[in-house]
């Protein structure tokens, strides 16, 4: 085995110090194949070497948590009645920037595999997307490709896409964000662990053939996007959703047998990653014969096979003597199932090609929490904070025509309906989705054989995080929880996808550290532990980093799905209340940023105790049947929340503004911890008694189909709804 050189190691993405560390681990100089394996396993994408110090500070313990962050392929919580929910969110940003269709499609496929390798059946998909200015042709190209890729894979695979979010900001022009989430369910006791143990047990690779697509994908995801990134196109994987559907069904059959020790998806770093992580967890080793791996191309080299990220593949460790049970299942589904190795007591990974030993590596040295390096980066407060702190609301003049301003806000891409996007997704396949015709702040899916529903959402306003990482991190968690609560569910746990710029930039790392501190504070307050997720650094272009975007995926439980709450006003004459307080605040709002053209301002006013009180009150009101709709106040402010609640049934609203604050702040400000509810007139007394001592404002009434504010006629709801629904389509 010819020794690798330092020059080769550096070209593969390792540092000189890391190359020396590898020599110490092996007590020799590694060969090229071994160096290539270390380069991907020690990349940021696989090792979290620049983030693990702070990830460990996130709260992970909870009464419902069955699998903590880092323990399995995805998070797992107990939802009662003998069922568990598995869920996770991950990024596919860099591949989607280069090849949007396949980048997004394989992101969806990969996150679903993380769920069903645990033995859970995926029942819902969500996504969180960020693009540049919608007026730019490049943005339109990326948007169309990503949406088509998500729709293609999800629709063919047969899992409904039930929710998501889409934002447009200039900073994402070169480097879009594509975060995919999957939610699945499994009966207690039927889960499979991503582990390997038992000397002599057999190691199988199942699924698609291994090709050269995706080689170096983990390293590709651990570098900045530049003008030369298109040359890395071979690093983008190619997916086959029909193959994955067969793989899913075969794995579901496998769960019912006693033949499996462990199973893991082959995602980033392929065979290298799955063999090392499973072996390290089980404190065993493996002997792997790479020449037995089914391939799509002839004469693939050992390092190519080890690092390939070809999709729809799994590594399975099978109890010795029960191999036929496994092979029969995969033969039935016409899926490759090849025995490629054996589990060893010696905790070494030994890879052979035609009986020649091509790599020998201690499994523990490759993995997160084992021998992978851990770094503590410097951080410093961003200089732009000084400009942010200069903003004063009293220096801003109110526009004269607030109706015209409201119409402009309604048409903004970040505000307007995303129906052009979600109409391309199959939201009904599987018939578990309860949200299609009953709009809620979060999607709700039914857990078959029970009365339970799982509410799920993805949320993050990255402009808030940019303005104040600590407050913005709290808001990201709390807005997700508020959406869960407004659907009638109790928030249970979160997964996160932490999208940031280059961690070697002290200002970017400051954003990362303080966003995590904010997330931790909110998760502790709301009792929503972190079950896992993904860190995606290096999201930037030569113009600078993207907004810090810690996307939160959250699930909550509804004990009786028939008691779920929706956002739509139900009938004319119902009373409209605002739970929470109106505040004289327009900081970081769409109104201030997009209409008044103020780039930097403080994050919206926020208090964690106020937020918790509002959420607890909303849950009480829903449980006691005192409200007939609930919808949180978020982007666009109170006016947009009212419009979204009214338009569902072509109703209107007649309200009076709070004269204690500026009218533009009342209508368009985005201060947090507020929810719009509607109440039947006959429940007015009971509702107000329940609200005694809690913050609430009476706004007005639901009307027949017109908008009236302070006695002024703002027009028919149908006209506003048309502008809201068609704004994005008109730009495309």
Description of the structure:
With 732 residues, this protein is α+β, with helices and mostly antiparallel strands. It has a domain of 168 residues: Phosphoribosyl-aminoimidazole Synthetase, Chain A, domain 2. 34% of the residues lie in helices and 23% in strands. It is built from 25 helices and 27 strands. The strands form 5 sheets. Strands 8-10-7-11-9-12-13 form a 7-stranded mixed sheet. Strands 22-24-21-25-23-26-27 form a 7-stranded mixed sheet. Strands 1-2-3-6-4-5 form a 6-stranded mixed sheet. A hairpin with a 6-residue loop joins strand 14 and strand 15. The longest helix is centred in the N-terminal third of the chain and has 21 residues. About 1% of the residues have low confidence.
SSE layout and pairing:
Layout: H1 6-11, H2 16-26, H3 32-41, H4 44-47, H5 52-55, E1 65-67, E2 75-80, E3 83-91, H6 93-98, H7 100-116, E4 121-131, H8 137-157, E5 161-168, E6 177-187, E7 202-207, H9 217-220, H10 241-255, E8 260-265, H11 270-282, E9 285-289, H12 302-307, E10 313-318, H13 323-332, E11 336-344, E12 348-353, E13 356-362, H14 385-388, H15 402-411, H16 419-422, E14 443-446, E15 453-459, H17 462-467, H18 469-486, E16 490-499, H19 506-526, E17 530-536, E18 540-541, E19 544-545, E20 549-558, E21 575-579, H20 590-595, H21 608-623, E22 629-632, H22 637-647, E23 652-655, H23 663-668, E24 675-679, H24 684-690, E25 696-703, E26 706-709, E27 712-716, H25 717-731
